[in-house]
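Example (one chain per record):
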Amino acid sequence: MTTDILEVNDFIVLIEQSYATKTVVEKCEIDGDSIGFAFYGSGNVELEIKHNNQTKYLTNTTGLAICFFGNQKVEFAHKIEPDKPLQSISIFAKLKYINSLPKAEKEIFENHLSDLMHPKEHFVKGPAFYMTLDMQQAVQKIFNTSYIGTTRLLFLKSQVNELLAHFFALLTTDKKADLSEYDKNKLFHAKEIITTHYSKPPSITELSKMVGLNSNKLKKNFKELFGIPVFKYIQEERLHKAYELLRDSEKTVQESAWEVGYESLSSFSNAFYTKFGTRPNEVKQQFFSNKS
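Predicted structure:
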């Protein structure tokens, strides 16, 4: 288990990863009255919460975004399942800091997280959502960045703000995906399969059988939950993986295209340009120059 602790915009940010092959239990405490947000990019965590001689359990899994109030009288213990790599980002803001925000920003918290701003217990659970694709990509950017030092802090600052903005957008939207937790879990399973097999993904028919949803329901609900059609999501995964290969490996543009599932170099280059506004060979040259 590795934890990177940063201070960003008066928020305390914990970036946590675990690749353990056995169950890991991590205990932690909150220093003072705080509102917390947690975003789970991957993994499965059982959160044990103890306060006032009570014990509560929350299960947080891949794709979930939660918020809560807690203080120093609450004991937290994270039980992390083995062989399920954990990637999570937790953001904590002291109530006294939130109360000192400009009026418009403070009102966002007051209007949408009133129970957390005026807690009646030492721990109060707030709204939870399955992350949108934009939120998932912001989480992955944080874990995949190669920036260091001051540049990394500036980058993380922008991504933390983006995650919080997306979270509050979900709080304020009138449109909520009317899906059962059972179906949501199946859809996240489908997304994990695609993420793992993005270069040679199963067909819709195959994927629907693998997760136990009929094809029409899979396509409709996948778009409703993640805001993007299945095939578009596959393309997004391929292009992001290709960008990482061009940035971090010695593979050529052609080799990167083949590895993520593109047979046509011109199709890959055009899709890459549409997504990132630059050609793959330009990205390769840029990072090669930086390393030289």
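Caption: The first strand starts at residue 2 and ends at 8.
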